[in-house]
């Protein structure tokens, strides 16, 4: 494994709706045995089932190292509540939380809330970017040492270290500060699927991890290069961006299927390119795409989680580990550490320090 470009792997543990968290716990533990960076749990207002963020809050105490990334829809929800919920997941998991920011596009979903009609994708993704922006500001609204907890004086908080964010967006405004102290990671990891045009700008501006859907390493590399250039144009270090290829995986019932590889045709749920083959075939594809620098890793979406995730971990990942292409243990405890991302400095503390020295 390259010292400068480690391979990152994540896996979806969703599938048909379940109302018992036991299966999610078992799958997350399995992924943790393989030292995957994180697991995801997809969600939307268009499908029945328990709330993904709440389910992963239940998974958190049953795991120790694996990152936990639920899908959180920014449409029809309040950004203040979203930021508080994700911060709470980070506290519950001791620094292993992320969130996949997504949008709700259909009129049927809008009618569930009754507040407003469905909006164009461009407007929805502008709102999603603003939600990601204000979430980061709210996570920073408590400085790391804002809590005093001095029983002798009765002081719990240093109010000079709480900050109003005073954010005005296109569809909402937030004053702040947050009601939850700054999370262990400073800012939980923000994930956005940046394949579509409207999502590209908020992904480049706000995301730590970006999914892309591509049918070839050349297409993935082009998308990754575009995202890195856009991130740099927004004043970000492009090396702080992790670009993962989203890949729906069908490992079938045999070790090796005929004609393995990406196939054309309908994409399940429209979310990823589709791989059909065996665990060894998948390891070869991952090795090839990562080796040529097309992506920083893969977000694997098993067709049948109970079957395919076991084959991914005990087959594909084990082979990559044997070849020294993927780690065999977690070097740190937080999701940011898994991804090789630093803990962000608090913007308000930096501003106060700058004012004090000017």
In a few lines, what is going on in this structure?
With 358 residues, this protein is an alpha/beta fold.
Please describe what this structure looks like.
The protein is built from eleven helices and 14 strands. It is an alpha/beta fold and 358 residues long. The strands form three sheets. The chain has an eight-stranded parallel β-barrel, surrounded by eight helices. Strands 5-6 form a two-stranded antiparallel sheet. The chain has a two-stranded antiparallel ribbon with strand order 7-8. α6 links the parallel β9 (189-193) and β10. The longest helix is centred in the middle third of the chain and has 20 residues, at 121-140. It is globular and about 60 Å long. It starts with 7 loop residues before the first strand and ends with a helix. Residues 255-261 and 263-270 have low confidence and may be disordered.
Keywords:
358 residues, two-stranded antiparallel sheet, 38% helix
